[in-house]
């Protein structure tokens, strides 16, 4: 039969499997995928940024307390910023281990820190108090909100993988 002549389609061969490429790593099983899911990338990045945002909130409050005296109702803002900053740092320590609740808590604390540090930053700049951490805290908090929202999905997958491994008897303290 010539190549230009119509040809009959060949039936697919049954039982054919792909041959492994020499030197390639072996196929990953379900347990290997579960172990790999325990340490996702985005929660670690989110934890770092949430911790930095919290540190900026705390240091902005310290800059305020050591630089000026506030005698009216605005004195509450740096205190709230410091408390939310410490909360963000605490949640970041648990977000590193890919805990879903920590990602949600970091999202909420960072969002509140955006609001309080943003309002305080506007008030401070309007009253000619310009401090590095007072200006940096809202910016880092916005990044922390975005990254902690992005980390919820990988944390959820890590929680499910942790539960599957625990059901198989592999507690591992994870």
Task: Give a written overview of the molecule.
The structure is a single chain. The protein is mainly α. Helix content is 68%, strand content 0%. It has helices at residues 30-37, 41-67, 76-95, 100-126, 132-167. Helix 1 packs antiparallel against helix 5 (132-167) and helix 2 packs antiparallel against helix 5 (132-167). The radius of gyration is 26 Å and the shape is elongated. It starts with 29 loop residues before the first helix and ends in a 7-residue tail after the last helix. The mean pLDDT is 86.
Task: Give the helix/strand layout.
Layout: H1 30-37, H2 41-67, H3 76-95, H4 100-126, H5 132-167
Helix pairs in contact: 1-5, 2-3, 2-4, 2-5, 3-4, 4-5
Q: First CA to last CA: what distance?
A: 64 Å
Mean of pLDDT? 86
The biggest sheet amounts to: none
The share of residues in helices is: 55-70%
Strand content: under 5%
Question: Total helix count?
Answer: 5
Radius of gyration, in angstroms, nearest whole number: 26 Å
**Derived structural class:** mainly alpha
**Count of individual beta strands:** 0
Unreliable runs: none
Order of helices and strands: HHHHH
Q: Shape, please? A: elongated
Structure in a nutshell:
The chain has 174 residues and is mainly alpha-helical. It is built from five helices and no strands.
List keywords for this structure.
mainly alpha, 174 residues
């Amino acid at each position: 039969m010539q190549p230009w002549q119509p040809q009959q389609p060949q039936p697919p061969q049954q039982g054919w499997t792909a041959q492994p490429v020499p030197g390639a790593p072996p196929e990953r099983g379900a347990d290997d995928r579960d172990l790999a899911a325990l340490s996702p990338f985005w929660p670690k990045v989110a934890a770092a940024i949430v911790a930095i945002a919290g540190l900026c909130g705390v240091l902005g409050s310290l800059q305020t307390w050591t630089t000026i005296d506030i005698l009216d109702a605005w004195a509450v803002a740096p205190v709230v910023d410091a408390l939310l900053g410490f909360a963000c740092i605490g949640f970041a320590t648990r977000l590193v281990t890919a805990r879903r609740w920590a990602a949600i808590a970091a999202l909420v604390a960072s969002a509140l820190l955006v609001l309080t540090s943003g309002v305080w930053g506007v008030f401070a700049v309007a009253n000619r108090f310009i401090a590095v951490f007072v200006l940096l805290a809202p910016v880092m908090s916005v990044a922390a909100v975005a990254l902690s929202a992005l980390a919820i999905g990988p944390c959820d997958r890590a929680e499910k993988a942790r539960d599957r491994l625990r059901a198989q008897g592999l507690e591992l303290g994870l």
